[in-house]
Amino acid sequence: MALKDYRKDMETCRRCSPCKFIPLEKVTKFEHINVCPSIARYDFHSYSGGGRMVMGTALLEKRLDYTDKLLEVVYNCQMCGACDTSCKYSMDMEVFESLDEIRISCVEAGRTLPALDKAVNSLRKQGTMVPGARSKRGDWAAGLNLKDYTREKVDVIFHAGCLGSYNEDASRLARATAKILQKAGVNFGVGGENETCCGGRAHHMGYKEDFLNQARKYMDGIKKSGAKTLVTGCADCYGAFKVLYDRYGLKGDLEVLHITEFVNPLIKKGKLKPKKAVNMTVTYHDPCYLGRQGEAYIHWKGKEVLGEVRTFDPPKTYRRGAGGIYEPPREVLKSIPGLKLIEMDRIKEYAWCCGSGGGVRESNPEFAMWTANGRIDEAEATGAMAIASACPWCKQILSGSIKGKGSHLKVYDIIEILDKAI
Amino acid sequence: MTLKRDFYKGLEDILGPEFVSDDPVITDTYANPFREGIPYAQTFEAVTLPKDTEEVQAIVRLCNKHKVQYKASSTGWLYSDPTKPNCIKIDLRRMNHIIEINEKSMYAVVEPYVIGAQLQAECMKRGLNCNLTGAGSNCSALPLAAHVNLGHLSQSGSYGERNQLALEWVTGDGDIVRLGSLGSLDEWFCGDGPGPSLRGIIRGNTMPLGGLGVFTKAAQKLFHWPGPSTFPMEGVSPKYKPAYIPPGFLVRYFSFKTLDAMIEAVLKIGEAEISTELMCFNAAMMASNLATENMEEEIAIYNKFKDSVLGPGFMVLIAANSGRDFEYKKTVLQMIIDETGGKPLLEVEDPENQGGYVWRYFRETGSIKETGRVLAPQAGMVGGGDSFPLMSYFIKSCAKLKAKLIAEGALFDDGTSPFIQSIEHGHTGHGEILARISLKVKDPRKVQRVINMGSNEISIKEFFGVPQHVWSDELHDMYGPHASNYHLWLRKIKKTFDPNNASESSNYISAKE
Question: What is the topology classification, in CATH, of domain B374-461?
Answer without folding.
Answer: GMP Synthetase; Chain A, domain 3 (3.30.300)
